[in-house]
Amino acid sequence: MLFNKRTERIFIWVFFPLALLMPLFLAENAFYISKMTSVMIFALFVMSLDYLVGRCGLITLGHAMFYGLGGYLFWMIAPEYEAVNFWVYTFYICMIASAVALVIGFLVLRTSGIYMIMITLAFAQMAFYFFSDSIEFGGNDGLFIYVKPETSIFGLSFFNLDDPVHFYYLCLLSLFNTLVFFRLLIRSRFGRVVDAIHENPGRTTALGYNIFLFRLMSYVIASALGAYAGYLFTLQYGFVNPSMLAWTTSGSALVMSILGGMGSIYGAILGTFVYEGLHYTLEHLTEHWMLFMGALIIAMVMVFKNGIAGYMEKLLEKRS
Amino acid sequence: MTTSLFLVQLINGLQYGLLLFLIASGLTLVFGVMGILNLAHGSMYMVGAYLAWYFVEHTGSFGVSAIISAIIALLIGIFVERTLIRQLYRRNHLDQVLLTIGMIFVFNALQGILWGNDPLGVSVPESLAGAIPLTDVLEYPVYRIFVALLCIGIAAVMYFMINKTRLGMLIRAGESNREMVECLGIDIRKLYTIVFAIGVMLAAVAGVAAAPMSSIVPGMGEHILITCFVVVVIGGMGSIKGAFVAALLVGLVDTFASVLVPQLSSMMIYILMAFILLLKPQGLFSS
């Protein structure tokens, strides 16, 4: 069984059907469709971070580097005024991001704990200033993507990326697939070893596993998915800018992941939706939304020790 | 680069480095002794700068305003430690990250409510307003030299306090073994409150000192926070000596990079950090 925990199953059965039906009710309201899409894209990004931090125990504050890279890579490799194939470019971007992650991961994974947080931050900041200080990449303003890719496979095209509802479904599908992918990965032999490394690196080494290699592979996988999320973001808004790879993007993704319940994977969706929902609501209610947001985050740390997912699981355990 | 320009950049770099040390020392002290990763440390720097502005407007004296700001910062430190930080000693670093990010939000919001979002400025106090001529055409402001000397003074006091006084002894003991200190009948919670409050005060004092040199803007805390983390990590987390060396190093590298390689200047300190961490994964002076 893929979704083993009861809470997780309930969440999946509530969230995905609702998300699937949402455009039927809100098809006229383009704003909500676009808002939901962007939150789902970010949830995908948070999920990849959640796997890295919660499952592998590799805390990074530089994950946004790959988010931004996904966008910039598309601008770099795609011709400017010609529609390219979405699937082919997804492949290209994930491959290039993986190659970058392989090199950076090779360097940063030599450190651990707080030092790893800082060295990942260092690389992300380098990337940030590389893009924001260079004229070729549009500096602080970023760049525009003029033509969106087409999505045909063997001549069949299911999505038209210029249509917000189509794009919404593409993102929903991506999110679901990523969730399933991570569940399969976690339940595979590879995932078991990764869990063992998280629990006790010393013993896992003694069992004959090369823990560096497993960490590196996890880092590459999460980074490639992070880049994919950034690529989707770029396609949605038609631009890339350096704020995508600012450390605050990594920071808020980390907050969402902790909020949702570190390492639970589906918690990433919960965390992102709760955070963005609160942000959106408070921003509309008051000019000083940050005060309430901050107070809520503080309160949540005090109350939910294992994030929202952990809290829900505890509630359900009490009932049964 | 001429000799005099080199000299000016050298003093600039050292002065910037010393200011960084003032902020970073609080960060590294709190981490070393309490094991708390305080991301809201930069906000304290911002609070210091805003308090300085506020009290200069109301009292007219920079000195008085500096003292009041430091005392208020100390009280904020005690309050925050007692109410929030205390809950987190037994939790992991990630919860601390989340909590202190929440605190950043709150402090930024309070800053917006109390003082608005327009850039503010504090003028240099009159007694320190002059400039010392270095050559015929170059001169160096007295205030900056005063700040550098102040930072050296505070560093010396900290060195003395940690190595020669009873409180310092307790801090060093708490750093190496919390349980043992508790067993010896010392109230470690009180010690933690003191250390945290001192850390907050150091950041706020740096904010006060920096107020006349730079404009006071929202978000100034986050910018300096990242730079201070670079300092703390290069020096080795928890090492005050390391923070001192690293702060000067970062100050000099940043200053000279903006003159020599302007296109790489913002990246330079991160390149430095990555390079040092790859050679010494625990920083320069790790314990």
From TrEMBL, chain A:
Keywords annotated in UniProt: Cell membrane, Membrane, Transmembrane, Transmembrane helix
Localization in the cell: Cell inner membrane
Keyword Electron transport recorded: no
Superkingdom field: Bacteria
InterPro entries for the chain: ABC_transp_permease, LivM-like
Entry-linked Pfam families: BPD_transp_2 (PF02653)
Topology in membrane: Multi-pass membrane protein
Keyword NAD listed: no
Transmembrane domains' residue ranges: 58-77, 89-109, 114-131, 167-186, 207-233, 253-278, 290-312
PANTHER family assigned: ABC TRANSPORTER ATP-BINDING PROTEIN, HIGH-AFFINITY BRANCHED-CHAIN AMINO ACID TRANSPORT SYSTEM PERMEASE
UniProt-recorded name of the protein: Amino acid/amide ABC transporter membrane protein 2, HAAT family (TC 3.A.1.4.-)
TrEMBL record, chain B:
Residues annotated as transmembrane: 6-29, 62-85, 97-116, 142-162, 191-212, 224-252, 259-279
Keyword set, alphabetical order: Amino-acid transport, Cell membrane, Membrane, Transmembrane, Transmembrane helix, Transport
Subcellular location, principal: membrane
Keyword field contains Transmembrane helix: yes
Compartments reported by the entry: Cell inner membrane
Bilayer topology: Multi-pass membrane protein
Tagged with keyword Transport: yes
Top-level taxon in the UniProt lineage: Bacteria
Cited PANTHER family: ABC TRANSPORTER ATP-BINDING PROTEIN (PTHR11795:SF442), BRANCHED-CHAIN AMINO ACID TRANSPORT SYSTEM PERMEASE PROTEIN LIVH (PTHR11795)
Similarity comment: Belongs to the binding-protein-dependent transport system permease family. LivHM subfamily.
Protein name as catalogued: Amino acid/amide ABC transporter membrane protein 1, HAAT family (TC 3.A.1.4.-)
Organism name: Marinobacterium sediminicola
